[in-house]
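Weekly modeling sync, notes
Attendees: S.R. (lead), two postdocs, one rotation student

Agenda item 3: backlog of single-chain predictions. S.R. asked that every request posted to the team notebook include the full sequence so nobody has to chase files. The rotation student volunteered to paste the first one in as an example of the format we agreed on. Action items at the bottom.

Example entry:
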Amino acid sequence: MPSYADLKRYRANPDPAYPNKHKWISERLLTLRYDLDMTIVKDRRPNSLIVGTWNIRAFDGGLPRLDESLHYIAEIIAAFDICALQELKPTLGPIRRLKELLGPSWDYFLTDVCQHEGGNAERMAFFYNTDKVFFRNIIGEIVIASDALPSGRQIARSPFFAAFQAGWFRFTLCSSHIIYGDDHALRAAEITAITDALAKRARVEDQVFMFLGDMNIESDDGPIMAALKNSELELASVPESNLGGDKPYDQIAYTVKGKSTRKTRLLRSGAFDWRNAVFGPAVERDPNAPDDPAYVARKTDAENLVHYEPIVAAHRKWHGKDSYVDFSRSYKRWMTDEMSDHLPVWVELETDYSNEYLAKFVRD
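Predicted structure, as returned to the notebook:
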């Protein structure tokens, strides 16, 4: 469970530019927790593993995010057992702050800043709950042959992998942020190079390999998605992850063939949309969803605009920036700078293989 100790500090030391900051954040967290429970937590099976991946837009390479945004990001990550994060920027302070908010049972691994052409000075990370997952002391990056890409160079943002175990399930996660730009053939080639490398490893290592992250796939029927679908990996079904709901940027795939004695069993998969709980703009909700409990307090877009306009103006002034000329027109972009322009996607996997193990002795 994330840490909420700072709410006491916000109450004890009121911010003149943000009246009742502790109250607003607490209300939003309650609503966010309810949506996470309804979407991810309440239906999870005992002894399962929930793996997430999230591109958190330029974290935190621009104007520092508001305190509350870090609380919301931590709350979402905490709904998973392990989460791959992409598009982290060089500054380490916000990353360490995120770990503090996740609490003492969480740990993380972080790459160096990527200096390759097209790397955009980014890092990647794995955050994981040590009560659910343990690190198996293997970590690294995928390096490809010089002829694997048309350009003859390495993958722009080196794929980051680490080995873990949850219950009986041994697995390696490989996180990636595929290069962006007009060269779709290069994007597809990066995906092919990575999936080929993982499939090759799976043939000789007794573990499952999972490939996940922001693959910059813009359509289900283009060459970039074809590269993933034509690989030896199985593709989980997840919704489109951009905020417009029409681009399948983020994906999770995994090996199903190879030496692993415990294959991947996919139980559930999905994406989590946080916009009806924090920041908005509000999106259409399932008309068959149950009524919200009394402690859930949703805000309209108009209420969010009224609340945040003076807070954002004061925040920008503090950091030497002018106020937005028209905050209502800038709100959607500002909101993505506070949270992200991507939704996190996730899978739930089986980790208990004890019945099959015991059954072998019955058959012998």
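Discussion: group reviewed the output briefly. The first strand starts at residue 48 and ends at 59.
Action items: rotation student to repeat for the remaining queue; S.R. to check formatting next week.
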